[in-house]
């Protein structure tokens, strides 16, 4: 989508899917570091898809649509799959309470972090329903755990560095890094919130308006190069850009609290990324390594 709100590419269009192939309930989608593929997690359909935008077809899939599981080749509510410069995929496997590292075209994990089915907060050993695992500038990974409202930092080898709580959250979602020492996350709640906080858990900025402008289950926020914050406000059916200096919405796509599918409208948007060279993967490509 262009900054002016014009749709530049959409998947799938008629003829993009192979016979008997489905593409149901996609949520988060991110560009690969080279910008040549898009990786989409279909959380409620238990599958991860790697898509070629130029050819508009699915190149690779991990998981079995509509069939949750924990054995090799299966996931259960995968979230925020990211394609690393190494060619590996890092994803949070929420209901299995683990992180997976996958290398296409294989359908067996290269590495598993966490004990499958053990949903305790014991970072490095087990995770409490992790819903995001994002790269950090120094090569570490920041992980968000729903259970207990935890944010963890892991080394590239998977060793636990620290854990903290996003201040005042009830359901943290998709924590990522603004700059070393400063994290950005959202509270998936109604009313919801967006905030930045230090790795020590100290609040730096919070956006949680009340009244007509209140957030309703935002699930992801990303920092923009100019210091603004891009976020999807899921159940308000919009994507917004907030200026932290003024706490004002300076750009919006979608009509607040109005669900729709035609141009200018959205229906429960659950993920957002910038096109290269500003995409999440490109920003951290030099240091991205799967834990």
Number of strands: 20
The level-1 CATH class: Mainly Beta
By DSSP (H or I, 4+ residues per run), the number of helices equals: 1
Backbone structural class: mainly beta
CATH fold title: Neuraminidase
Strand order, largest beta sheet:
1-2-3-4
Element-by-element helix/strand order:
EEEEEEEEEEEEEEEEEEEEH
Fourth-tier CATH superfamily name: TolB, C-terminal domain
Largest sheet: 4 strands, antiparallel
Helix content: under 10%
Measured between the Cα atoms of the first and last residue, the distance is: 32 Å
Key attributes of the depicted protein:
4-stranded antiparallel beta sheet; 291 residues; mainly beta; Neuraminidase; 37% strand; 20 strands
Can you characterise this structure?
This protein is mainly beta. It has a single domain (about 30-285), classed as TolB, C-terminal domain (Neuraminidase, 6 Propeller), CATH 2.120.10.30. The chain has 1 helix and 20 strands. The protein has one helix spanning about 280-285; strands at about 30, 40, 45-50, 55-65, 80-85, 90-95, 100, 110-115, 130-135, 140-145, 150-155, 160-165, 170-180, 180-185, 195-200, 205, 220-225, 230-235, 240-245, 250-255. The strands form 5 sheets. It has a 4-stranded antiparallel beta sheet. The radius of gyration is 18 Å and the shape is globular. The model has no long low-confidence stretch (mean pLDDT about 95).
Secondary-structure blueprint:
Elements: E1 29-31, E2 38-42, E3 47-52, E4 57-63, E5 78-83, E6 89-93, E7 98-102, E8 111-113, E9 130-135, E10 141-145, E11 150-154, E12 160-164, E13 172-179, E14 182-187, E15 193-198, E16 203-207, E17 218-223, E18 229-233, E19 238-243, E20 248-253, H1 280-283
Antiparallel strand pairs: 1-2, 2-3, 3-4, 5-6, 6-7, 7-8, 9-10, 10-11, 11-12, 13-14, 14-15, 15-16, 17-18, 18-19, 19-20
């Amino acid at each position: 989508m262009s900054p002016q709100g014009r749709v530049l590419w959409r998947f799938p269009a008629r003829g993009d899917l192979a016979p008997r192939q489905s593409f149901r309930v996609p949520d988060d989608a991110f560009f690969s570091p080279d910008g040549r593929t898009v990786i989409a997690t279909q959380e409620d359909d238990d599958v991860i898809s790697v898509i070629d935008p130029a050819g508009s077809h699915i190149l690779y899939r991990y998981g079995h649509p509509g069939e949750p599981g924990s054995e090799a080749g299966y996931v259960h509510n995968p979230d925020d799959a990211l394609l690393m410069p190494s060619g590996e995929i890092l994803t949070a496997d929420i209901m299995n309470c683990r992180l997976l590292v996958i290398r296409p075209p294989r359908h067996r994990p290269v590495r598993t972090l966490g004990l499958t089915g053990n949903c305790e907060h014991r970072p490095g050993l087990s995770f409490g329903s992790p819903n995001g695992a994002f790269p950090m500038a120094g090569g570490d990974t920041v992980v968000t755990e729903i259970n207990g409202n935890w944010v963890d930092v892991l080394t590239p080898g998977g060793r636990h560095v620290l854990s903290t709580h996003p201040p005042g959250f009830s359901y943290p979602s998709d924590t990522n890094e603004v700059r070393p020492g400063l994290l950005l996350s959202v509270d998936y709640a109604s009313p919801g919130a967006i905030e930045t906080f230090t790795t020590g858990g100290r609040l730096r900025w919070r956006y949680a308006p009340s009244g007509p402008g209140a957030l309703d289950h935002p699930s992801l926020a990303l920092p923009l190069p100019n210091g603004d914050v891009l976020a999807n406000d899921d159940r308000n059916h919009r994507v917004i850009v907030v200026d932290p200096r003024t706490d004002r919405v300076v750009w919006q796509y979608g009509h607040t609290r109005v669900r729709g599918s035609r141009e200018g409208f959205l229906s429960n948007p659950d993920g957002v990324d910038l096109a290269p060279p500003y995409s999440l993967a490109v920003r951290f490509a030099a240091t991205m390594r799967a834990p």
